């Protein structure tokens, strides 16, 4: 990222993090609660709490289960739509501390990550990040993730809370086999960074909110989308917390994901919230924002049956990786890149009325030929019309293709549209 950050600083701080990608909800409160409950196998599995749980309760949060954690859905006195619009117009602050944060280190760390993902990491600059996918042997997506490169021997990775058990088991299995096969080259080490706080400050006012809390001389304008840096943040308690500040997020707006030491998480969060431009935002707003931005929610738009090509994530497969074909699941992925996949993720604009929710069947224009299903759908607060993402058969994915969706046993018109629904406003300098 920042060329001025030293290698020795990297070794000492070993905690850099990043943007992009991450996770959320349905549009109305009842639907959201059903969505979250479906991600868990029993009531006891959502007893986990982030370091901001008491903070959320203090600020009037409605708590729901998500990814094994008790997370804020909305906050007292602020509806989902109002919260959504505040992020689009000002700045919202999200707790994303439920995400699983990993460090991979060692002489073969880069090669190992390129074995389990199709990401191109060799040319990635230090303190830069990329979205990627964790692949099965069959080429299905086990999870989507963000990889941040500190150096060729040190990587920070963020995965989804709802896939924690599956991801950790898969990584452990692959890592054991990898280290056995590469004896003499130096083991790749893996650890989960438990207790680390992670918040997302999102919206057009984000940089103006954060800049005064940073050291004099550090200009956020130097931190473009996908870049990060270790920076001390001053708090209202007259303390300073060394945080990893990454430009990016899961809303399509300019913003930052900030990784915070456990003992400073509440202090830093309270300090950011003290700015009048900032409003706390929960999972409900996060889901509608990410869907407008055309971003996937694992377990809905993506799952183990979906390949990167089907999921409209072919761009995550680097050109050098396509040539080498040396990553897990490469046979299916390379075949679909060449011949086309059986289905594709698309955006839909749906006619007025009740929105087409997840599971809604999609038909060809004739209303008889079933061609897919909706994976996420909401009434868009920004556009004032119904939007959805769907997996449809190849050939029905082209822009402006007319389709039909079955909502409450009635056929409604839909048309394939380009993603994102709302143009992204990432800061690129």
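-> sequence recovered:
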């Amino acid at each position: 990222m920042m060329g001025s950050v030293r290698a020795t600083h990297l070794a000492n701080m070993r905690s850099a993090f990043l943007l992009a990608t991450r996770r959320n909800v349905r549009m109305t409160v009842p639907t959201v609660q059903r969505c979250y409950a479906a991600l868990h196998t029993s009531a006891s599995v959502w007893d986990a709490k982030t370091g901001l749980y008491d903070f959320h309760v203090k600020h009037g949060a409605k708590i729901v289960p998500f990814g094994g954690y008790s997370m804020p859905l909305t906050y007292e006195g602020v509806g989902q739509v109002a919260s959504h619009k505040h992020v689009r117009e000002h700045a919202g602050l999200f707790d994303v501390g439920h995400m699983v944060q990993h460090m991979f280190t060692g002489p073969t760390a880069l090669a190992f990550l390129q074995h389990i993902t199709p990401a191109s990491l060799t040319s990635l600059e230090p303190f830069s990040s990329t979205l990627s996918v964790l692949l099965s042997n069959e080429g299905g997506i086990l999870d989507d993730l963000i990889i941040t490169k500190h150096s060729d021997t040190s990587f920070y990775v963020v995965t989804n809370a709802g896939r924690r058990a599956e991801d950790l088991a898969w990584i452990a299995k692959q890592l054991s086999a990898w280290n056995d096969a590469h004896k003499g080259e130096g083991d790749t080490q893996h650890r989960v960074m438990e207790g680390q706080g992670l918040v997302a400050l999102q919206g057009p006012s984000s940089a103006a909110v954060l800049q005064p809390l940073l050291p004099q001389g550090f200009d956020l304008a130097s931190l473009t989308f996908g870049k990060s840096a270790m920076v001390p943040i001053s708090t209202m308690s007259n303390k300073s917390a060394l945080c990893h500040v990454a430009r990016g997020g899961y809303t399509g707006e300019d913003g930052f994901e900030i990784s915070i030491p456990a003992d400073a998480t509440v202090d830093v969060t309270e300090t950011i919230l003290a700015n009048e431009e900032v409003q706390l935002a929960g999972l409900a707003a996060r889901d509608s924002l990410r869907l407008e931005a055309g971003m996937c929610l694992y377990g809905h738009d993506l799952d183990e049956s979906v390949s990167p090509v089907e999921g409209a994530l072919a761009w995550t497969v680097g050109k050098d990786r396509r040539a080498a074909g040396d990553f897990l699941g490469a046979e299916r992925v390379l075949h679909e890149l060449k011949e086309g996949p059986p289905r594709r993720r698309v955006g839909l604009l749906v006619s007025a009325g009740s929105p087409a929710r997840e599971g809604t069947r999609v038909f060809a224009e004739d209303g008889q030929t079933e061609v897919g299903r909706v994976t996420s759908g909401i009434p868009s607060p920004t556009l004032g019309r119904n939007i959805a993402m769907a997996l449809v058969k190849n050939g029905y994915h082209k822009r402006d293709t007319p389709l039909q969706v079955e909502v409450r046993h009635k056929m409604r018109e839909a048309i394939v549209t380009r993603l994102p629904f709302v143009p992204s406003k990432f800061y690129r300098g």
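The CA atoms of residues 362 and 405 lie 5 Å apart.
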